[in-house]
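Reopening: Actin still failing for me.
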Amino acid sequence: MPSNPNSQLIKPIRRGSPCEWDAMESVWEYTFQHVLNVAPQDHHVLLTERPLTKRANREKAVQIMLEKFSTPATYVSMQALLALYGAGRTSGTVVDVGDSFTSVVPVRQGTPVTEAILNVDLAGCYMEDYLSAALNLGDQDMAREVMEKVCGVSASNGTVVTIGAERFQCGREESKPLHEIIMQSVTACPPVRNSTHTSYLRCGWINDAGRIF
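Support: Ran it again with your exact input. Result attached.
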């Protein structure tokens, strides 16, 4: 979006859920008009949501799509479930590491095992904070660049940063190791859990930086 020195930066999504609905509506409007270049009233819309989203949030999102954008139909689905379908599976455990949270979602025959879903504060933004402090970067953008490349890099501003043990520590600073979180989720499934225990899918930011874990 065009920059404006008098504008205020608002993050409409916090920990995977919309929290500023007016700003979220503006993001959707910009996406329809300037990114997709489509008229929303001519298209069905699929929205994704984080696991264990409150029903009120889901209803609000659908209300905006139907009343503000006049979409003929809107469907909301869990991110992890769509990722599993995209991989050609209907059962498995999905590990989705995003910018503000990580979710572990066991799915059996297309149905999430709700009682075993875990959302934890292990995510990109926390790792940026850790690397920025551990490497004395003082720059969140540089921390993100280092985090994404996970090696010795020459950052975009010309600064050379060498990362050693920090690459393994940043993913563990804020939470227990990821494999323990996954096992906690899987073992919380009902007794017959073969389909979720033997098939795992990584998605989100971890696809690029999974080596940290």
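The chain has two domains: 13-80, 89-212. If you still see a failure, please send the error message rather than a screenshot.
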